[in-house]
Amino acid sequence: MAIINEHKAIIQPLNPIWYQPCVPQMEMLRLDLIHPVISGNKWFKLKYNLETVLEKGYKNILTFGGAYSNHLVATAAVAKEYGIGSIGIIRGNYAKNNPTATLDECRALGMRLLFVGWEEYARKTDEAWLNDLVAEFDTPYVIPEGGANDAGRRGAEDIAKLIPETYSHICVSAGTGTTLIGLRNALPAAQKILGFVPMKEGSYIKEEIEPHLRVKENWQLFDEWHIGGFGKWNNKLLAFMNNFYRINNIPLDIIYTSKMMYGLDELLLGRYFPDYARILCIHTGGLQGNSSVQDFLSY
Q: Could you tell me what percent of the chain has a pLDDT over 70?
């Protein structure tokens, strides 16, 4: 699995103009730098799943996601790299005839796409339906949406190895909550984990997170900054992304990290953090998702 060099991830200080005088330190863990496509937390959630695929000789990987899923793109890229077939079960039929740039990239990487309605997609953890899919696609290795299985959570724990204990607050976007679980389980309990959910009314994932936590305390979810829902954006968010890049020279993605940093800006202005807070924000990659708004971005 030498295609990814995890040591390419760096911790980059943010420009003090962005966060002072609210807190004394804010930095970003640039997981987006480890690979242009299989980037950020996506790689960490896939790495141990891929290990099983290679060890047991699976010919195909089957996974799930929506029309803007970075997980699908990363899975397709990993599969292509290793000569493995990939199948994506796509939530909602709306994108079948009007595919997003994300889905076009999945196809370009060789992923076969199967579009299903929302009701059928809701059965993604139903054993009977999964058995039908496994039979239909020649016994693939199945990875849940967002890599949300034991292997994905174990991979997310590896991100904690890149994080010093000097930070008081660790901030991460939370789609399925898999990365947050790995971080909360692997980091010292004294470090507070803040999860920023990019879905409308997304705090429901708390119920999916809690059963997998070994460390139960000192974490929190925010779902106020979804900008209309998952994959949604507006001119204010685009302007924020451009301004953040101008000040910090860090590109943000339209789906996840931009909304986290937008929320963090609001929390800073609202004096949510104690005066001593030393904050690490995790850039979870997915910059290829910006292709749909590239004309509006200055990077």
A: 99
Q: Which pTM was predicted?
A: 0.94
Same domain, 128 and 261: no
Residue 288 is predicted with a pLDDT of: 87
Cα→Cα distances 284→21, 54, 170, 241, Å: 26, 25, 13, 15
Where is 298: in which H helix or E strand?
Answer: none
Q: Which residue is associated with the tokens 């889905």?
A: 103
* CA gap 48, 199 in Å, rounded: 27
**Ranges in the chain, pLDDT < 50:** none
- Provide the CATH number for the domain around residue 177: 3.40.50.1100
Q: At what angle do helices 178-186 and 40-56 cross, to 10 degrees?
A: 90
Helix (H) and strand (E) counts for the chain? Answer: 11, 10
- At 117-173, the pLDDT tens digits run 999 999 999 999 999 999 999 999 999 999 999 999 999 999 999 999 999 999 999
Q: Are 278 and 22 in contact (CB under 8 A)?
A: no
Could you give the CA distance from residue 199 to residue 141 in angstroms, rounded to a whole number? 28
Q: Is 114 helix (H, G, I), strand (E, B) or coil?
A: strand
Helix (H) or strand (E) holding 232: none
Same domain, 141 and 268: no
Q: What is the CA radius of gyration of the chain?
A: 19
Nearest CA to 279 out of 291, 267, 296 is that of 267
User: How far, in Å, CA of 194 to CA of 225, rounded?
Assistant: 13
Same domain, 140 and 160: no
Nearest partner of 67 among 31, 93, 29, 30, judged by Cα: 93
Q: Which domain holds residue 34?
A: 6-40+150-296
* Helix residue ranges per DSSP H, the chain: 16-19, 40-56, 70-81, 101-108, 118-121, 127-136, 150-157, 178-186, 206-209, 235-248, 257-269
